[in-house]
Specification:
Mean pLDDT: 91
Radius of gyration: 24 Å
Helix content: over 70%
Distance between the termini: 19 Å
Largest sheet: 2 strands, antiparallel
Structural class: mainly alpha
Strand content: under 5%
Oligomer: single chain
Number of domains: 1
Number of helices: 4
Length: 213
Amino acid sequence: MARSETDPRNDFDVEVGTRSPGYNLPQRLGATMVLPMLAMAAMAFPAALVVGVIRADKISSGAAADTIAALQHLGVGLMFVGFAAVFAAISFAIARILGRLRAGGGELQEAAGRSVQSLRMPATAKAFLVLMAMAMMTILAAVALHFAFAIDVENTTSSIAQSEDRFVVLEAIRRIGVAIYLFAITLGLATIVRVLRFQSVRIRELPAELAPS
């Protein structure tokens, strides 16, 4: 049975128009930020590897304990700059895919001369954006503290012990950030699945639907 432009849907929450809605702000950011994030990761990971090699050499040559502790914080900080960039690139890629589906689905309906129905932002997409931002801030806060502690450590027994304690605490913070990021990415993928389901249903409706007058 054909569905008219004014018929409410009870299967998907949609907005109706006559033209493709195009990209929203997160999707536009996704289209432009994937490559910069990958480039950042491509620089951060080799830098962390270099610091790790230098630290290993310092340990084998019996360097001062504060130097080794500082390099530990610096190396892990650089490593997690890379991880944050990779996770951000994945998240932006998901946003880019969702944008392409949103714009492309609207363009298809517009070209077919039918009313353009676009899926409103699902709750999974909203949670994806919020959790992605939380995860990014959590990891970058841990990275900033690693860099600060690398500068702060001194060649005393109490300072070295404090540095180790700080490292353990920051490791927990980093893991929380990674867990949040992975959960956010899962929600982003779930949103892609929902959009594809909606578009599959909508495409099957087009042949039988009357064009808007």
